[in-house]
Design brief:
This protein is an alpha/beta fold. It is built from nine helices and five strands; from the N terminus they run E-H-E-H-H-H-H-E-E-H-H-H-E-H. The structure holds adenosine-5'-triphosphate. Adenosine-5'-triphosphate binds next to helix 1, helix 6 and helix 9.
Length: about 200
């Protein structure tokens, strides 16, 4: 089975695109979901977090204190590398297992927000699909959600790959500046191309 890696900046529309592919019958494996599952206490990954960073990075319920950890890795790039070393190999392994467990079909979608930023994920996919939108759209969509204010949203956007670099690495691009039905049309056209590609290879 072929694997298409879906990526894009925060709030670009990855989950929306993944849901549209799922509606077309494409199996979707989402590394964000896997990361959440690995962070349900108690878990080996959280034990490593406590060992490496200290118990104060876990809440009283044993769950990851995401806000505190986010602050830490923004201030301290070495901490981000250590956190990635705890989670990324486990996420990759779980993604591989989940992909291998899928019943046979032409292709699957693997959602990886940091496909181009994180090590080792590009090796899991046969081609990449980037969801792209303007930074204003991105900000507006992020701010609609609770828990993220403008300054944090801007910091997260700046910490990610610049859009031009992401687009230069993309095999395929979906532009998501319009309506949901425009996005859906693009996804349907893309799906037709992927079916042909998967059958030809
Ligand atoms: P994150 O990086 O935070 O996981 P994401 O890239 O998965 O985000 P989505 O959650 O799909 O992005 O989209 C962000 C928000 O924008 C959601 O509330 C979604 O419903 C909305 N949205 C995405 N695309 C469109 C669109 N074309 N029209 C209207 N709303 C949209």
């Amino acid at each position: 089975m072929k694997v298409v890696g879906l990526t894009g900046g925060i709030g670009s529309g990855k989950s929306t695109v993944a849901a549209l592919f799922a509606q077309l019958g494409v199996p979707v494996v989402d590394t964000d979901l896997i990361a959440h599952q690995l962070s349900i206490p108690p878990s080996p990954a959280l034990e490593d977090v406590a060992a490496v960073f200290g118990k104060e990075y876990l809440g009283s319920d044993g769950a990851l204190d995401r806000a505190r950890m986010r602050e830490r890795i923004f201030e301290d790039p070495a901490a981000r590398i250590r956190l990635d070393a705890i989670f990324h190999p486990r996420i990759r392994k779980a993604a591989q297992t989940e992909l291998a467990s899928l019943s046979d079909g032409p292709y699957a979608l693997l959602v990886v927000p940091l496909l181009f930023e994180a090590d080792g994920f590009r090796g899991l996919v046969d081609r990449s699909l980037v969801v792209n939108c303007t930074q204003e759209q991105q900000l507006a969509r992020i701010l609609q959600r609770s828990g993220i204010n403008r300054s944090l949203a801007e910091r997260i956007i700046l910490s990610q790959l610049p859009p031009a670099k992401r687009l230069a690495l993309a095999d395929d691009i979906l532009e998501n500046n319009g309506s949901l039905s425009e996005l859906q049309r693009q996804v349907e056209a893309c799906h037709d191309r992927y079916l042909k590609w998967a059958n030809d290879h």
